[in-house]
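Encode chain A's predicted structure.
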Amino acid sequence: MLFSTRLKDLRSKQNLTQKEVADAVGMAAVAYQRYEYGTREPAFRQFIALADFFDVSLDYLAGRTDDPKRH
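Encoded structure for chain A:
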């Protein structure tokens, strides 16, 4: 699964808006939107912040595994 798809799925499952997620991880809403649209990929710090916010592993968020648990 692509990063952008995984990110949108995680947000949707928690019934959050793009702005709510962006605010929670300290980024501009337009930057977060670009991640979900697949037009931009996050820098390492934002990538970690998103994984922490959704409480998933970096590999899960990146689409490298279907196991969301952090080990």
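The chain has a mean pLDDT of 94.
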